[in-house]
Amino acid sequence: MATNMMDRPLLISGLLNHAQNSHPETEIISRRVEGDIHRYTMGEAGQRAKQLANALKDLGVEHGDRVATLAWNTYRHYEIYFAVSGMGAITHTINPRLFPEQIIYIINHAQDQYLFVDLNLLPILEALKDKISVVKGFIVLADKDKMPATSLPNVICYEELIEQYSDDFQWPEFDENTNAALCYTSGTTGNPKGVMYTHRSTVLHAFSSISNDVLGLSSESSILPVVPMFHVNAWGIPYAATLTGSKLVMPGAGMDGESLYELIKSEEVDLLLGVPTVWLNLLNYLDEINATLDSVENVVVGGSAAPLSMIKKFQETHNAFLIHAWGMTEMSPIGTVNNLTRAMKKMPLDERYQLQLKQGRPVFGVEVKIVDDANNEQPKDGKSFGRLLVRGPWIANGYYLHQDKSAFEGGWLDTGDVATLDKQNYVQIVDRSKDVIKSGGEWISSIDLENAAVNHPDLVECCVIGVRHPKWDERPLLLAIKNKDANVEEDDVIKFLEDKVAKWWLPDAVVFVDELPHTATGKLLKIAVRDKYQNYLMEAQAVN
Ligand code: AMP
After folding, report:
1. CB contact at 8 A, 74 and 252
2. Which residues belong to the active site?
3. CATH fold of 437-543
């Protein structure tokens, strides 16, 4: 039957057009890599994005071409997001913290035509330049007088480039299912894999994320996304803030406590977004200078689990509610959000904090289920563990130019996380499925054990892995780094854990180490630890 609704495409350029028309005075404030603070409006950003689109067209960038960025959160990066995707090309954001071989791999895999780079990230490219010959030119995000001497070939100054072009540009219209942005995830094994977002997935994700129960963005908001624009599009905030005309405060490369606090205070920021380690640094700095965050109402925390101490500290010292959220690169990234509800408002604080430790409920658009190894759905009792599967309109159904579809069977994405689900649909992430310890048919959360152990005053960092065991298949082994002068022993640690976890969860052994390996994104590299220690208990038994 014919429908009577207009079939207008959901395009990223539509977000910018909307902001230019309805929120032209909304401010975007950036700490530039050069060190100073830059201020302008969404209206001006829209004009400069059009100048850039004209420039890129002249440079030969065509529909579907990949154009890369190696850059911090600033106004120029924002302009590139909209210009490149808006003209029908693909914004490919590169994480500068990846290992050099990974950066080489993804530039070549994506076949990036041009690469925008921040001044202080130039050395990364200079070291790789001979291995990325596909790139036609490097556009340095700087004023003319700040252009550095560089060994890179075909270097263009961003400001010099765009000043030559007019802002007379009509964003083209095309199918909303056109590719718009590309971001590679860095797993612990193999090469990074590309997740390609479309215009439709990006706009729908933005629509969902602004709502009150999700991130609650509006034209009243002043938002500081510390989560980088090279990590899942800063959780989609540049798009969402443009939809709502929210003031955007961009931290540039300054993610230390002092730099963040300065911006939060001067720009009256009410919403912060970032990973726990960033907030730990900020909270420590605020303690040192004895200051509180007076304007902040909400802090969105994701990427890894928000600890109880952080939830409490934000609430009790800074009167800010911590919105715990979960997602992943493959999910644009928002999957579940734990925002304040009417029921939570009435709970005693300690009960509410316990609930806030969960990663929240799926936002509209995202469906979740947990299954066991035989793919049987597990009960929603808040206790049963299962592999967390998701589906939805902003969730990938495969990786960019990649054959392996094993994570995407039956129309669901296997997130690689293990979780519980409760009656209210709250998800709690228990572990990564590769890391959960399968002991005699039962599952033990390595993360819970690590969190419990690291509270020991003499331990700095802990890593729990499942290692081979003749009777139980796997048993937990705890590797721990001691405080410098501590003389804590294995028995002390086990005793410390006894009243914190179930008896059968207690590690079979504790090994003290001087350091633990990490991935480029700061997560423990458990695969390397497992390689080294997988036979630890077998060997110990053989000796005894
Ligand atoms: P990435 O794709 O790099 O953003 O990493 C996604 C992964 O980070 C997820 O699959 C989880 O394992 C982890 N993660 C994200 N948010 C949380 C959270 N709130 N709590 C625990 N783990 C999280």
Report:
1. yes
2. 185, 330, 438, 443
3. GMP Synthetase; Chain A, domain 3 (3.30.300)
